[in-house]
Amino acid sequence: MAEPVQQGQIAVLRKVGGLVFDATFEETHESELVVTDNPVETGVIVSDHAYMAPRKLVLTAGVSDISLRGVNSSDAFSSDSSGRARRAFEVLAELQKLAEPFEVQTGLTLYRNMICTHIRTVQDKDSSGVFIFTATLREVIITFTEVTGYPPRKAGATRRQSSAPKQRGEQQSKEIDRRSLILKGRDVLRGLL
Length: 193
What we know:
193 residues, seven-stranded antiparallel sheet, 2 helices, Elongation Factor Tu (Ef-tu), domain 3, 16% helix, disordered N terminus, alpha+beta
């Protein structure tokens, strides 16, 4: 059983894209450094590079039809037509469908640029008024490009890029007889067989 928060302690509310769930049951954090391997002629594998893979977070949380917050507090899952559990499922599914990066505050760290790749929930006779789910979140690595303008080049090529023109004289073309070409090809094939 968790100890109550005492004066001077800070409670971290888990937030997924600004959504605060009633309970967070489990957080699984995954961070991986990928090392590239390249086999060489002698059979040895050479590692020449390493990079950080996008971070992953698997979150198991829940929302019930009964609000745990005060009446005056804002509730992203309040709904006139359906219960909080159903509304929480709709809001989380919409967040996934948008495919726009968002922030996730966990007990360990603040993740930026995360998207929801997978939502899994099970409903049975005992959990009809509760939405308990497992969501898989993945970091999206965002890069920015910048266009740089160069001054215009002078007409013509530089010395290093071109060679002196060569005089080859007058060139003449000759028409090819297709029938003689086919016969020569047959003779070559017969000689190979």
